[in-house]
């Protein structure tokens, strides 16, 4: 009888451990799901900015005051690129390219409707800007090792426009997978792969926007002349109807 009671206690204890393990797994899975959902909800706003001559100080004041309000909503200006050259494409080179991050579309809308922000935008940004094109974007499902550079790095920003048809999207993905195996050899690191879903301004909405950085300009030049890369460029060009590729420095 005593043995039977001990056996029953052991069974109950084992069942409790099993239930606790299941609960822990469910909790871990829920955390992972929430993390994925948060990533999917994240909004990245990309702005190509053209500043009027002599209005640089006014625009700096807008960035300072507007950025402070953005932080109150849990957002952040995560990167500002100052282009130095256009490696491919025929766009007028912008003065700055801004990447601002928001936790969700709801927060993005709340920030843009904030009365204090509207007042600052009208007082500082509107009179300082010659032109602006804005692309509101989400993260793509492309899996990559996300790294973060700094102001010492050379940056690349690519606006990508696919040819019509699923086969061209597939072809570009194949090209991209192949070059991503080569590019790190030359000190290339990836920060963002995003897909715009709405836009405003004169520049057509791209299908994707890529942001990456290089450890050195020499590495970038060597990559461009690499035989493996050059063999893949025709595959890229055949899949795209347009490509604008800016190279510059990070000022934030």
List the helices and strands and how they pair.
Layout (H helix, E strand, L loop, with lengths): L1 H40 L1 E9 L4 H17 L3 E13 L7 E7 L2 H8 L2 H14 E11 L14 E9 L3 H17 L5 E13 L7 E7 L2 H9 L1 H13 E11 L2
Antiparallel strand pairs: 1-3, 1-4, 2-3, 2-8, 4-6, 5-7, 5-8, 6-7
How do the helices and strands follow one another from N- to C-terminus?
HEHEEHHEEHEEHHE
Q: Which structural class do you get from the secondary structure elements?
A: alpha+beta
**Head-to-tail CA distance between termini:** 75 Å
- How large is the share of residues in beta strands? 25-35%
What is the oligomeric state here? single chain
Return residue spans where pLDDT drops below 50 for at least 5 consecutive residues: 1-18, 29-38
Give the neighbour order of strands across the main sheet: 1-3-2-8-5-7-6-4
Mean pLDDT: 88
């Amino acid at each position: 009888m005593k043995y039977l009671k001990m056996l029953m206690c052991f069974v109950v204890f084992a069942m409790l451990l099993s239930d606790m393990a299941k609960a822990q797994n469910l909790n871990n899975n829920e955390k992972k799901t929430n993390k994925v959902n948060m990533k999917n909800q994240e909004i990245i706003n990309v702005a190509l900015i053209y500043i009027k001559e002599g209005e640089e100080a006014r625009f700096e004041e807008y960035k300072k005051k507007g950025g402070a309000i953005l932080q109150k909503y849990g957002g952040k200006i995560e990167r500002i690129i100052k282009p130095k050259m256009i490696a491919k494409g025929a766009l007028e080179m912008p003065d700055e390219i801004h990447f601002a991050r928001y936790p969700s579309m709801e927060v993005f809308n709340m920030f843009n409707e904030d009365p204090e922000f509207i007042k600052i935008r009208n007082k500082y940004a509107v009179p300082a800007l010659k032109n602006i094109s804005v692309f509101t974007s989400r993260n793509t499902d492309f899996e990559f090792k996300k790294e973060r550079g700094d102001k010492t790095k050379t940056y690349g920003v690519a606006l990508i426009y696919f040819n019509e048809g699923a086969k061209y999207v597939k072809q570009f993905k194949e090209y991209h997978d192949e070059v991503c195996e080569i590019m790190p050899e030359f000190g290339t690191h990836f920060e963002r792969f995003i897909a715009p879903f709405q836009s405003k301004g004169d520049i057509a909405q791209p299908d994707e926007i890529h942001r990456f950085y290089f450890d050195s300009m020499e590495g970038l030049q060597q990559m461009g002349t690499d035989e493996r890369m050059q063999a893949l460029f025709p595959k890229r060009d055949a899949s795209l109807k347009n490509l604008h590729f800016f190279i510059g420095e990070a000022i934030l």
